[in-house]
């Protein structure tokens, strides 16, 4: 098993298993520095990403084994003093939610490496930037110290400017700057919220702390929760495409190279929902209950707006980007419902969307690389000339609209059943509005399939498009298998998530 091999190499104890998720990407980056040419760069990136995936898979097995004998909120914890003066620690640990998101990250990163196999423009620098982003994401998901989490959050976000600004297409400078400014603005708001939590973490007479588990034991005053919950929520939720702060996302997706779009939508945007759940709602539950009505309105609006926005688009990337706004709005909507079933749906939706949207962007990149257009009105009959890519696109579309047997159905059913458990006309109306997005999703998915894949081939130049390569098939299958697996056998994953939700339920109820 990969984990045990790595453990021997680094001579680590079982409790240090999580540190490898930061160490291995950094070592891969260092190895990339000394590579020469495209071939060496992609082999080193592939090996490093394969090791990360092996670590993530083995972490799942290790988690179940540890959970059987350890009922702590977090397992595999480690705590090392970083800045003693401010009580800042390198504190890490995982529960079932973060384990699942680590697995998602590892799969999408490896798929992104395969999809970028033929990257010829500064390949070494490109793969280094991708791995810096993944390092930040891994570090964020394992952190249980707010300051350390914020540092990894910024490490994950900053490379996006370079990845879009250097390797992007179209108005890439504008898109990169817009994305950076909006996310940095959100980070400033988030920092105020984090500091507000920190300075109220000694409300019961203890020492100030950034440790999430320690803060959860403190009764933060209601007035402070009322003030800092919206700041913390917005700070994270902007990355999760919260309406009306979502506009950076479609432009960023449209200009980003394929692998960057995959990591952007498939992994990076998950930091928003995870941060809302792990920090804002867990540490400030009374603030969440006070403000839920306001943010439910924004989230439900985002669900509908994103779906209708996708219908109006002709560019494949913009269609998928607005679809992401809708699906991630559903994640925020479910989190604000404040019950176990909806929260389970929110986590499942984050995972499902991560795989689906990464697969969509991979397929869009393949189509664009062959036809040199993303305008669906200029495409047609692709099912005849590139049948493998077209068939997978249809499958991804069916998963996106929530067809039973795929991951989207399991996630959305939990969300809507959980949402209906809330009594009160306001919650029921908001749920009905959000449910209606399923119909709109079916419209724009079937519209794209009909225009782009069916009918006669519109352009004779498309009659001899290149066939799918082995590395493209590998990237596709890495993303397709989890979509089907979640739909066919979701119970092990759902049980792992539900078990980790209990501490959150106890805080809210």
UniProtKB/TrEMBL annotation:
Family per similarity comment: Belongs to the complex I subunit 4 family.
GO biological-process terms attached to the record: ATP synthesis coupled electron transport; electron transport coupled proton transport
Stated name of the protein: NADH dehydrogenase subunit M
Natural source organism: Lutibacter oricola
Domain NADH:quinone oxidoreductase/Mrp antiporter transmembrane positions: 144-432
Record-annotated membrane-spanning stretches: 17-34, 43-64, 88-114, 126-144, 150-167, 179-199, 227-248, 260-281, 293-311, 318-338, 350-369, 381-406, 426-454, 475-493
Keywords assigned by UniProt, alphabetized: Membrane, Transmembrane, Transmembrane helix
Main location: membrane
This protein's record includes keyword Oxidoreductase: no
UniProt cross-references to Pfam families, sorted A to Z: Proton_antipo_M
GO cellular component term, pick one: membrane
A GO MF term: ubiquinone binding
Compartments where found: Endomembrane system; Membrane
InterPro entries named among the record's database cross-references: NADH_Q_OxRdtase_chainM/4, NADH_UbQ_OxRdtase, ND/Mrp_TM
Domain of life: Bacteria
Membrane topology according to the record: Multi-pass membrane protein
Keyword Membrane appears in the UniProt entry: yes
């Amino acid at each position: 098993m990969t984990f045990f091999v790595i453990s021997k190499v680094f001579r680590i104890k079982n409790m240090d298993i999580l540190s490898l998720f930061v160490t291995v990407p950094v070592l891969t980056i260092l190895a990339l520095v000394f590579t020469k040419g495209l071939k060496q760069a992609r082999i080193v990136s592939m090996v490093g990403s394969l090791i990360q995936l092996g670590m993530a898979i083995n972490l799942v097995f290790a988690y179940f084994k540890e959970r059987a004998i350890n009922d702590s909120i977090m397992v595999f914890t480690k705590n090392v003093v970083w800045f003693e003066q401010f009580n800042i620690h390198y504190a890490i640990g995982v529960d079932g939610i973060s384990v699942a998101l680590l697995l998602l990250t590892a799969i999408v990163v490896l798929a992104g490496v395969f999809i970028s196999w033929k990257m010829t423009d500064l390949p070494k620098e490109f793969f280094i930037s991708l791995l810096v982003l993944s390092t930040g994401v891994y570090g964020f998901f394992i952190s249980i110290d707010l300051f350390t989490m914020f540092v990894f959050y910024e490490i994950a976000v900053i490379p996006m400017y370079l990845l879009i600004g250097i390797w992007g297409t179209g108005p890439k400078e504008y898109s990169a700057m817009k994305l950076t400014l909006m996310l940095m603005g959100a980070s400033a708001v988030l920092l105020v919220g984090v500091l507000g939590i920190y300075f109220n973490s000694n409300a019961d007479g203890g020492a100030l702390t950034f440790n999430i588990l320690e803060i959860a034991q403190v009764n933060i005053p209601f007035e402070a929760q009322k003030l800092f919950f919206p700041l913390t929520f917005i700070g994270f939720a902007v990355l999760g495409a919260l309406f009306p702060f979502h506009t950076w996302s479609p432009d960023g997706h449209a200009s980003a190279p394929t692998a960057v779009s995959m990591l952007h939508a498939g992994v990076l945007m998950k930091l928003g929902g995870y941060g809302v759940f792990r920090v804002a709602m867990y540490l400030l539950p009374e603030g969440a209950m006070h403000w839920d009505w306001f943010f439910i309105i924004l989230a439900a609006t985002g669900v509908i707006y994103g779906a209708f926005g996708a219908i109006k688009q002709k560019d494949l990337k913009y269609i998928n980007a607005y679809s992401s706004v809708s699906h991630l709005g559903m994640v925020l909507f479910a989190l604000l419902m404040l019950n176990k079933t909806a929260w389970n749906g929110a986590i499942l939706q984050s995972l499902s969307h991560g795989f689906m949207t990464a697969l969509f962007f991979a397929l869009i990149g393949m189509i664009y690389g062959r036809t040199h257009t993303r305008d669906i009105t200029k495409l047609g009959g692709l099912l005849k000339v590139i049948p493998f890519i077209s068939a997978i696109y249809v499958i991804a579309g069916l998963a996106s609209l929530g067809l039973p047997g795929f991951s989207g159905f399991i996630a959305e059913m939990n969300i809507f059943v959980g949402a209906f458990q809330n009594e009160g006309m306001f919650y029921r109306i908001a749920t009905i509005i959000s449910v209606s997005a399923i119909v709109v999703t079916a419209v724009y998915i079937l519209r794209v399939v009909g225009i782009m894949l069916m009918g006669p081939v519109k352009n004779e130049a498309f009659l001899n498009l290149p066939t799918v390569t082995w590395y493209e098939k590998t990237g596709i299958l890495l993303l397709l298998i989890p979509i089907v697996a979640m739909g066919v056998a979701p119970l092990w994953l759902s049980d792992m998530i539900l078990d980790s939700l209990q501490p959150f339920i106890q805080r809210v109820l």
